[in-house]
Amino acid sequence: MSKRILMLAGDFVEDYELMVPFQALSSIGYHVDVVCPGKKAGEQIATAIHDFVGFQTYVELRGHNFTLNKSFDTVKLEDYSGLYITGGRAPEYIRLDPRVLDYTRYFFEKNLPVAAVCHGIQILTAAGVVKDRTLTCYVAVGPEVTLAGGNYKDVPATEAVTDGNLTTSPAWPGHPAVLREFYKLLGAKIEL
Predict the structure, then answer these.
(1) Phi and psi for 130 in degrees, rounded to 5?
(2) Is the pLDDT assigned to residue 71 strictly greater than 70?
(3) Cα–Cα distance for residue pair 159/78, rounded to 1 Å
(4) Three-state SS across 72-130?
(5) 4-8 and 82-85 strand pairing
(6) 89 pLDDT band (50/70/90 cuts)?
(7) What pairs with residue 14 in β-bridges?
(8) Average pLDDT of the segment spanning 175-182
(9) Rounded CA gap, 190 and 188, in Å?
(10) How many Å apart are CA 123 and CA 32, to the nearest integer?
(11) 101, 23 in Cβ contact below 8 A?
């Protein structure tokens, strides 16, 4: 199986939810292709930093620029052994591109490993792949999971929920948990 991961992102993806898994997967030998509908390799997307600072919801601050390393239109799904869906504001609008939903469905049809974090679950609900699945997400996305026929599980932000080929986490504090589960789904072995 290929050691390539497809990562879906877009402008105002949450900075940590892009950079941490991109770097972590790269550090253990996976090639991670980060794509955005309507953009090509070499173009940039803007990231956002989400944090809780005393308001009822998170604030969004401008993050970094990330240079895409793959053109969205040149993706060949059979080249990938897994899919990673980032969070932030990007999922709410990239899910409007039918190809994003088709890409997502492919990984479920082939029972390949999928990880999604925070608002990335909005892509899963729009793709219709959460019915009868147990998963987690940012709490404000929980009603979408339920409406899409999934079983929303409210867990601390540091945890992950795995059901079959899918692992999910509520937000970036869950990176250690969701990445550990994704590694298992990929069959990656890390020895200490």
Answers:
(1) -105, 0
(2) yes
(3) 30
(4) HHHCCHHHCCEEEECCECHHHHHCCCHHHHHHHHHHHHCCCCEEEEHHHHHHHHHHCCC
(5) parallel
(6) very high
(7) 48
(8) 98
(9) 7
(10) 19
(11) no
Residues whose CB is less than 8 angstroms from the CB of residue 6 and which lie 6 or more positions away in sequence, other chains included: 33, 35, 75, 77, 80, 82, 83, 84, 103
Per the listing, tokens 């996976």 go with 30
**Sheet containing strand 166-169, strands side by side:** 31-35, 4-8, 82-85, 114-117, 166-169, 161-163
Q: Which residues contact 83 (CB under 8 A, 6 or more apart)?
A: 5, 6, 7, 8, 103, 104, 107, 112, 113, 114, 115
For tokens 């409406």, the residue is 147
Look-up of token digits 């609008």: 93
* Strand 13-14 to 44-51 pairing: parallel
For the stretch 98-129, pLDDT in tens is: 999 999 999 999 999 999 999 999 999 999 99
